[in-house]
Please model this.
Amino acid sequence: MTDTDLARLARESGLERVGARPPLGEYLVSVWKRRAFIYTMARYRVQASVEENRLGLGWIVLKPILNALLYGFIFGVIMPSDTRPDNFIAFLVAGVFVFEYFSKAFGMGSRAIVGDAALVRSLNFPRMLLPVSLITRHVMEMVPMMVVLGVILVIVGEPITWWWLMSIPVLAVMTMFNLGVALVVARLTVHLRDVSQIIPLITRLFFYASGIFYSLELVIDDPKLLKLAQLNPVHDFIALIRGYMVSGNPVTGFMWWVAIISAVVMLTFGVWFFWKAEERYGHD
Amino acid sequence: MATTNDVDLGAPAVIADNVHIHYKTFASGKAAGNSRNILRRQRGVRVVRAVRGVSFVVREGESIGVIGHNGSGKSTLMRAIAGLQAPAQGTVYASSRPALLGVNAALLAELSGEKNVILGSLALGHSIAEAQESYKDIVEFSGLGEFIDMPMKTYSSGMSARLRFSIAVSRDHRILLVDEALAVGDRDFKRKSEKRIRDLRERAGTVFLVSHSMSSIRETCNRVLWIDHGELKMDGDPDEVIDAYQAHH
Model:
């Protein structure tokens, strides 16, 4: 840009360009300073969803239970039984619950900016607050879900062990991954609304590929293909939770590596990718 | 009354340097967003030049009326000053972050007015304690009474605008942009808000007021910008500019 008289006047008077995207470090500091917003908005949203439906909070846990019932019924009947591990119900319910955690971040993440357009258009704040607040909300909702999962596991005969506590670090790593995913789709949807049409399709793909109602190890014979399927981080998050909570599912170091590396890469990329477009959100 | 080139006013607060703002829309009228590559070749995408090369310097303590017919680009210009819309060309500079107060619907429609007040305040970087402190003032000023506990989607446009205005003036903004928000309030509220704007100006704040109410502008502003088809047609003393504007129509 040429240095006009007005630009010089602005500089001499100490004015700053409006709407300029701050450097990444400064940006993240401004997000951190508004952590009260992140938490409060997440809490309000949970409350609002509770007040809206008669069953309220119940739906948060009821939905995955109904899903698990449905899949259990369908796949328990039509799939050959040699693709299933012995304690199929525990295996399936753990898979569906953990998958739900991912699919919510993926699906609702795409609406994080466009869904709150009125807020984005009327107030100036770091836009990253919205996807971060969404994931915070999911973390809050995950607490009752894990309790229900524990209860179901006990009902179907799984023993309670100290290993169950390992689900906390697993979910913490998965939350990083989810946040990265939400940041990426939140921006993509702003550029191209059509993205939100494809998301259910991709979710379905992940659902079938992540070994939720069957065991990857029992179904895939080709070792190369199996390795490839195991590189899908969603599968590894599910496998880790099963490994610590459902008997007969061994945890491997490989799962942890895929989980941690994918979470760090996804989150780093997501933060950078989202921040790059900070000036463009809400311009339509 | 101060005039445009009065150098004795305060330091510059807002500078618009040759600001151009473009919209991309589908010819059908559906907004296409700002998709850069994929939609470039798509048929029916039309670029609307909403603001075309507007420049001005506004100093502290000025209150600026912005007038023009519907669709002249006034609101778009305000959004650019607030940093909510990036200019296609040119730059807006400001001494502090301007706060825009528009008439668009609720902030978070499913939440109550109370929660919107708290969240709005937190989003702007305030602590929970500060948000709760200003909450009382906001509710009192807005005069919404028990409606403050209802979801914002149940508010009338007037109520919603009152709440926004109250949120905006509750804090000491150095630069406040008011877009038509006064038009929807009732008479009492209008008087109350005009007084707030004058108070703000006296504390060396800067106010932009977009309005179709010439009396409102005459009463609260000491300078008027007339935007016509995206260009700055006239800039000066309120009586002069308003007379010219009314003669033109």
User: Anything to note?
Assistant: The two ends of chain B are 25 Å apart (CA to CA). The longest strand of chain B covers residues 12-26. Chain B touches chain A through 57 residues (CB under 8 Å).
